[in-house]
Amino acid sequence: DIEVNNRKTKVFQDGAFRHTKWTKLRVGDVVKVEKDEFFPADLVLLSSSYDDAICYVETMNLDGETNLKLKQSLDVTSRLQDDDSFRGFGAVIRCEDPNANLYSFVGNIEIEEQQQQYPLSPQQLLLRDSKLRNTEYVYGVVVFTGHDTKVMQNATSAPSKRSKIEKKMDGAIYVLMSILVLISVIGSVVFGLATKHDLVDGRMKRWYLRPDNPDNIYDPNNPAVSAALHFFTAMILYGYFIPISLYVSIELVKLLQALFINSDIHMYHEESDTPAHARTSNLNEELGQVYTILTDKTGTLTCNSMEFIKCSIAGTAYGRGITEVEKAMAKRNGSPVISDFELGVEDFHQSEGRSAIKGFNFRDERVMDGNWVHQQHSGVIEMFFRLLAICHTCIPEVDEVTGKISYEAESPDEAAFVVAAHELGFTFYQRTQAGVYLHELDPSSGEQVDRFYKVLHVLEFSSARRRMSVIVKDEEGKTFIFSKGADSIMYERLSNSESTYSEATQKHINDYADAGLRTLVLAYRQLEEIEYAKFERKFTAAKNSVSADRDELIDEAADLIERDLILLGATAVEDKLQKGVPDCIDKLAKAGIKIWVLTGDKMETAINIGYACSLLRQGMKQITITLDTPDIIALEKGGDKGAINKASKVSVVQQINEGKKLINASGNESFALIIDGKSLTYALKDDTKAAFLDLAIACGSVICCRSSPKQKALVTRLVKTGTGKVTLAIGDGANDVGMIQEADIGVGISGAEGMQAVMASDVSIAQFRFLERLLLVHGHWCYSRISSMVCYFLYKNITFGVTLFLYESLSTFSGQTLYNDWSMSLYNVLFTSLPVIAMGVFDQDVSARFCLKYPMLYQEGPQNLLFRWSRLLGWMLHGVGSAVIIFFLTIASLKHQAFRKDGEVIDLSILGATAYTCVVWAVNMQMAITVNYFTLIQHICIWSGIFLWYLFLIIYGAITPSFSTTFFMVFSEALGGAPAYWVVTLLVAVAALIPYFTLAVVKTWFFPDYHNKIQWLQHAAKHADPEEELGVVLRQFSVRSTGVGVSARRDAKLVRTNSKVIHADSSSQSQATVELT
Question: Where does Mg(2+) bind (predicted)?
Fold first, then answer.
């Protein structure tokens, strides 16, 4: 904050621009921002170094998008080209109040000299934290500063997320705290009773406590006070029951685990130079407990790298490319024709000798290389390509050396359209404030000609309008409106008389949707001067308005002109599946994870993408919930909102109930639920969402189409709260931020839609396929390690604490400690801390290869097999048992025999040091038999704890008795030379571990967990191939399949084939029986 606030910018003061700190900026200041500088506040652009007052802005800090945005000032202020021009300049800006909407701005500017208002739009707004690019300088006036700026209005604190293991660990700590209070109360009561009878008839029972001293707290006359004071002594003494250092150790371990995730070369994407990044370490173990994955489609399952592949013009389909969805459909239908045709297309590519062009995968000799001029509807084709080259907001960049043109576009779709127009003979090469310049193919001469189109208005795309229009005037003075948008919107605006091939185009659009392509309808109309003038007046008045309904007024004006359009055709772009998506989904499905797809695409497109990535398969029954029924459509035409809402809700509830009946009536069949956005609105109502969730959970896969960002977040919340299991949301765009923050774990993909999803996520990866390794390997390892780590921590602290309690009970809870003070303080710091950290970082119950080979192992997490209360309590009881064995065996071994050569028996210091040594050996040896995967680091950590204990005894015992107290020379003079000490240490430590070792052997042999079975496989794999011997057992041990994925598709096909064979055999047998008869 200090660095940002003290940045400097040039502000117009006293007739010149002077450097001023950002903190001193005020609304109304005129500032000058130079190339590659950040904008210090929200500014209204007045002019720039370009003659037409345009500038290029990078908004990565706002929306994560790397493409440059074009901004342009009003004509009236574009003359302010130098510093001197601002002397005597004055204006008044009236605008909206501060708000968080990055993409809207309502206001107007009134120049003092002219006394006329000019409308302001987002095109003139330069937002704080965006950067000036490819422009030498701009002048702007401050409208919002500090916390009023839009970027600060959007700043929200990330939701706090804690893992389920952490929450259960808190419960375990509460249990231990309750035990601590209980034993402290028991000790205090016993001590109070003993103190009461310490002095009877002048005789002292516990004389060493000096009950005859009136200043002593051990006062037989006030046993209640003594008991109360002892309670606090006991709480401090038994405080070792509470593993406070566990929280510190876990934070350190999670940080190191996150570093390992970040460094995994198998999750590094070389093309984009992007590694995996665990943005928080709080949720590492949650990655191993995911029950449901909710994923976006575009840019997450697909590449979000659009390619223009097909189009329909004047009712004729063009484009010979084959999509991945079509390949999947061919496989689904068992058709060999596609593969042969695909081979022919590849030969065609090679024969043409064309290099691959990003965004363009269109091949059709009928329209390429200028051949479109020979087509029947050449005029329509010409207008179609012209619309592609004009109707957009792209920015061309021409390489001065090569002359090659590249485009900065707001979306991959727009870039694909402009590239397609360029490849087909209509090259957009320059944009100015006045309009756009094209190189066009003249059909009469066959030559490229330069044409200029004056851009009068741009009616921008929005999620509500779902269309974009540009009004232009050509060199002949004719005015045209070019429009493109969704078919459902555009078809309502077509002229019935002049759109003769609308049915053929609609059929092509449906075919393209079936092929998994994204479609847009293109249309145009020539405008009459009177009509345009009427629109101009209304549109300008709407833009000048500063009222709350400004957007509605603008939409009304646009709606007037976007009518009676002439259909040109439709475009189809392909968003290819990312590499490895089907295999990744297959592995996740085999791991028992349910996968939901939440997308804004059409139902047909989403379904076909589902087939391509094996979320859907042939033979899987589909339950479709939609409101596109004749009854609902008829009501919508009537316009009665109350009746529409009531009928829609009844329809959705009815479809949900029918789906549940269908599932209940079936056997082991797999179902897929597909629901559209309209239906989802009613399915998420409070009184219907429970039934909807029950239906969705019973299905193998769920696809929600036409979902808004808010619906995505609501569905995620429903799944998270309704199932009570861990949910993971994964997406790549700003529209996915809601569900990423709502889910237990949010995963962001650093893709073409910017970095907003990544910045809101808990973990970021470059490709969807890396989710497989992130969950099945790192997730399982982290869950297993943290679970074992917590259990071991409870064990070692209880072992230590119970030995203190047992000694107290033998000494009538006098408050005397068995161990030296410094040795107790260092127990969790030096002697037992490193092994548990090493286990949390390096332990592997199963290797990465076997984690991926047998994904059913992952179910240990969702079923929480390794962190159940029974396991926690078992480790606690093991700690109590070890403490009892260590304490009583140590006393029994040393109590009555001479310990030194002169015949002296042991004292408290020797007993304490010996028992402490047994505890250190026992807990470190317990770690040695608990660890699954030994490394040199783990060996060093385990045995260094024991070594440090002996080193402590020697060094600490050599210090003066005033400091070392009872441990003065205890090792060098008493313990080191006594054979009994070494024998007792060895035998007692081993005896303490025998119960655990025995139970572990019995459980592994007769009641193995998932990882125990795979450990046997892993061990057998070193000697021979164990697949035939143990593979079947493992598969039987697996969870029920979710019914999706490549494997499920293959298994279903095998079942169908076998059923056909059996049916054929039974038919032949019946025929033979008839003949014999």
Answer: 296, 298, 732, 736
